[in-house]
Fold:
Amino acid sequence: MLLVSDPLRRASGTLKPSDDGRFGARARARAEGGEVLAANNMRGAAAAVGAFYSKATVRASIRQALQPVINADNEERFLSAAVQAIRDIRQLDDFGSAIATRLIALTRPDRAISVNAGSAPLLSRLTGLPKTASILASEQNYPRLLQWIFQQPWYNVSEPQAGFEQTIWSMRAALIDSFVSWS
Structure:
């Protein structure tokens, strides 16, 4: 079995499924000794999940912050709404940039990507933007990252008519995370 260690090939789409024998981020992390890293990175997420489920005001604040992201009907409005959502969500206790970008990506997988400690280094290599998650997900750099995505040829293809391809197309920005996390 051939194991390809170059995550840039995965992210750029030049890696064929037969080239990579590893399946899933968890398997890759385990193979690369990343179980401890994964556990450490989940502490912040666990605190945010606890706040989300225990406080109705937190859920309402998140929903309010994400509504303009949902409603954005063009790239310019989306970039502005995403930056404001990051600002608003980061104001909440236990919520940082990584969680804010994850929520934005879950809300609009067609336009947004999650930025965290696992994905930031490769996103930086692909885009030339800063490599730390907190700086890459900042109000200054997150729009630049999204603009980079919006300029990619694969992002600008017409919407497919077939079911599965249409589903993938509708989440094309957020799916980048599956290629760059734990790389």
